Amino acid sequence: MSNRSRRRQQKRVAPLSNRISPNTGRIKFFSDEQLYSIHDATLQILETIGLSDAPEEAIRLIRDNGGKVTDSGRLTFPPNLVNEAISKLRKNFILHARGNDQNLDLSEYKVHTGTGGAAPMIADMSTQTFRQSVLDDLYDASRLVDKLDNIHFFARPMVANDMSTSIMLDINTAYASLVGTSKHVISSISAVSNVKTVHQLCSIIAGSDKNFFDKPFMSLNVNHVVPPLRFDTESCEVLIEASRFGFPVMVNTFGQMGASSPVTIAGC
User: Lower CB count within 10 Å: N or C terminus of the chain?
Assistant: First the structure.
């Protein structure tokens, strides 16, 4: 064997580099004064205008804590309730994984990289064409992420279009993601009636309800509000039900002009 061949062989058998979990600083787009101004304006909007289409349970919870429903049916929030809720948010916590040394430490300025989205199409490398994504594609994506050291979590990046009902979509999306990777999984649930079934799957994988509750290795992504100032009723119901079963829930707060926020730049 030549020296060049030996060097190539050594490179192939060399161990992979250590997993990178970077720390970083903070990017500040606004001054503290500007942030307080935005916060005060938000409190005023929530107190005087509120949001429409709130589910009954959300109305009851907010009313019991000082909120009101206007004559037009909009749920309003007192400033003290909003500030109290913000103050009680956990600042440091762990999103658990089933694999060793794969937990996501969300404290201080730690940054983690993962997948995301809900693409309905995929580029098929075998045919060099675009086609609808199916469950096997989602499973393959989770297997790929599992082997990529510097991708730290798997958020469902595509939709399984071959699932015929919402329960088939939700349970199989969770299953394909969880069997493909031992890293933390972020998925979604499309109907409140499906939350219990997906939780049962997670508890079976964890070994018990308590095991999953203590170290939940799957969280949910919820789009709870749509413009203009309107709750997505069923998504809110999913959020409330998921919290009862111990799912960590990420509520989307980003603005996409014309989709999750008004079409103007000012509205976004």
Answer: N
> Which domains are present in the chain?
31-89 (no CATH), 91-268 (3.20.20.480)
SS3 80: helix
d(CA 81, CA 94): 26
- Please enumerate in sequence order all residues whose Cβ is within 8 A of that of 188, keeping only pairs 6 or more positions apart, or say none: 118, 156, 170, 173, 220, 221, 222
The angle formed by the CA atoms of residues 92, 98 and 102, to the nearest 5 degrees, is 55
Contact 169, 190 (CB under 8 A): yes
Name the nearest CA neighbour of 16 among 150, 153, 184, 183: 150
pLDDT of res. 115: 97
The answer to whether 38 touches 30, Cβ cutoff 8 Å, is yes
pLDDT means over runs of 10, the chain (268 residues): 60 56 74 95 97 96 97 97 94 90 89 93 95 98 96 96 98 98 97 98 97 97 89 95 96 74 69
Residue among 221, 183, 218, 185 nearest 200 (CA)? 218
Task: Retrieve residue 128's tokens.
Answer: 């060099």
Question: What residues contact residue 221 under an 8 Å CB cut-off, 6+ apart?
Answer: 155, 156, 186, 187, 188, 250, 252
Neighbouring C-beta atoms of residue 225, cutoff 10 Å: 19
Q: What is the pLDDT of residue 99?
A: 80
